[in-house]
């Protein structure tokens, strides 16, 4: 493997291949930063350009977009409070408050460095343990993935900021939203007579509407009361950023491992790993009360796990020929287009091409770090743009990104309606994070639960399979921990009176 990796380095160590990686990284960063555009959309745009390329060059371009796209979401998350991609949702919780507190450069720097380390960790795991993890991931059938999603749903308690009942209500609304449209038995549900609702709601318009409109309307209120003061752009604190990330080294490695592992499971993705990493970082931190207020550990957990999905998601695609999501299906299409079949034999038949994938990822991560740090001063200046210019510009970008999903005007209406709905929830002090959690996980949860019960209608199967039982036990432990933590906080508050 080491020999193949070194040969692959030689294959892509030319101006053309390196330029392709660089172009891919830049385009991926831009795509990830535009709310609603997503990594998948960026890869779909680039995919046709690989038709006339050699396999190595085509892979180089796609890997660049892949790495850049997953890191690009931090820009809009930190500077605007709007997730550029679904997997950068938890970056908002601490990145945006830190930016509002006058430290946008610090927030971006922490996220970029954490993203870089997360990518490197995932590449290391991909190179050394890829086939082994791929074989283990085959044990994750519908029962295990359903139990994993249930475990992720128990994170509502830690995302509710003390308002657990309101958080549960928001999560329930989110799950309900995903049931609109046809189910797996082709039964139409909750369409209320509107034919446009028969296909359900796209996740991204709903998510962007809830986050973007709430944040934009909140900014308008702040600007009217003259309390919204743009943070001063200071000299970028590189030493402080390095110190912040180093202090979170355990959190950094743990979150990277979670991202790589969850990314390697077919049918999961960056969203689940994001929420799990953030939750674990908060629960295991000695300063858990600082999360959500601009705490470096929250940014580290979110961005490290987010970018570690890059290497993790390639594991089942390359080793087993099983793409975990649409992005990986497109990556498989590039390989098949050039006459290469992903799977166990690829490691023996195409070792140099496999090494070029690893090398492209590594070079892409380095170029991503350089590009982001070079442009960080310009990104930070977004915070100084007057609200009268920034708000309509962001709104237009959200509308364009939403429309680009399906070229459907209805998606823009969805964005507007859920934006207003999210704003009313915000004004009633209902936490929005559980709502998004329910929306992000709801469709996959129903799909996996249906598959599990179709294969075996006996509910006891969830408890007799070791992995699914383990996740259910972890879910119960998570709920118990949240209850005890809430009770402890309440007792401490009463004692202080």
Automatic annotation (TrEMBL):
Keywords: Membrane, Transmembrane, Transmembrane helix. Signal peptide: none annotated. This is Tripartite tricarboxylate transporter permease. InterPro entries: DUF112_TM (IPR002823). Residues 18-437 form the DUF112 domain. The chain crosses the membrane at residues 20-47, 59-82, 107-133, 163-182, 194-217, 318-340, 352-376, 382-405, 412-442, 462-484.
């Amino acid at each position: 493997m080491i020999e193949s990796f070194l040969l692959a380095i030689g294959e892509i160590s030319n101006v053309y291949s390196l330029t392709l990686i660089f172009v891919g990284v830049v385009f991926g960063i831009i795509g990830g930063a535009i709310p609603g555009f997503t990594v998948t959309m960026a890869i779909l745009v680039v995919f046709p350009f690989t038709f006339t390329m050699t396999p190595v060059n085509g892979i180089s371009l796609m890997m660049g977009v892949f790495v850049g796209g997953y890191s690009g979401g931090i820009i809009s998350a930190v500077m605007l409070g709007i997730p550029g991609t679904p997997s950068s949702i938890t970056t908002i919780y601490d990145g945006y408050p830190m930016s509002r507190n006058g430290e946008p450069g610090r927030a971006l720097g922490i996220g970029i460095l954490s993203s870089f380390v997360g990518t490197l960790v995932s590449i290391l795991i991909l190179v050394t343990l890829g086939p082994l993890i791929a074989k283990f991931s085959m044990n994750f059938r519908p029962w295990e993935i359903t139990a994993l999603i249930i475990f992720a749903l128990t994170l509502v308690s830690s995302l509710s900021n003390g308002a657990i009942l309101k958080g549960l209500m928001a999560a329930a609304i989110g799950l309900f939203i995903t049931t609109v449209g046809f189910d797996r038995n082709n039964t139409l549900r909750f369409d209320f007579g509107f034919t446009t609702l028969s296909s359900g709601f796209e996740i991204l318009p709903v998510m962007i509407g809830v986050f973007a409109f709430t944040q934009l309307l909140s900014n308008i209120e702040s600007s009217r009361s003259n309390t919204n003061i743009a943070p001063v752009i200071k000299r970028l604190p590189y030493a402080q950023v390095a110190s912040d990330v180093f202090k979170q080294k355990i959190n950094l490695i743990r979150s990277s491992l979670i991202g790589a592992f969850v990314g390697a499971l077919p049918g999961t993705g960056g969203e689940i790993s994001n929420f799990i990493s953030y939750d674990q970082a908060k629960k295991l931190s000695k300063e858990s009360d600082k999360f959500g207020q601009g705490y470096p550990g929250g940014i580290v957990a979110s961005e490290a796990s987010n970018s570690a999905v890059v290497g993790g998601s390639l594991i089942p695609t390359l080793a087993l020929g099983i793409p975990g999501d649409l992005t990986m299906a497109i990556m498989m299409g590039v390989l098949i287009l050039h006459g290469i079949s992903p799977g166990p034999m690829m490691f023996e038949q195409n070792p140099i091409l496999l090494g070029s994938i690893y090398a492209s990822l590594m070079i892409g991560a380095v170029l991503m770090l350089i590009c982001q740090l070079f442009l960080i001063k310009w990104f930070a200046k977004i915070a100084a743009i007057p609200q009268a210019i920034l708000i309509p510009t962001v709104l237009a970008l959200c509308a364009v990104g939403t429309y680009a999903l399906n070229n459907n005007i209805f998606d823009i209406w969805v964005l507007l309606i859920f934006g207003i709905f999210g704003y009313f929830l915000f004004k009633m002090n209902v936490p929005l994070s559980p709502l998004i959690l329910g929306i992000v996980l709801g469709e996959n949860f129903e799909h996996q639960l249906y598959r599990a019960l179709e294969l075996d209608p006996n509910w006891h199967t969830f408890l007799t399979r070791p992995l699914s039982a383990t996740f259910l036990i972890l879910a119960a432990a998570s709920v118990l921990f949240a209850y005890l933590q809430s009770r402890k906080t309440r007792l401490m508050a009463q004692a202080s009176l």
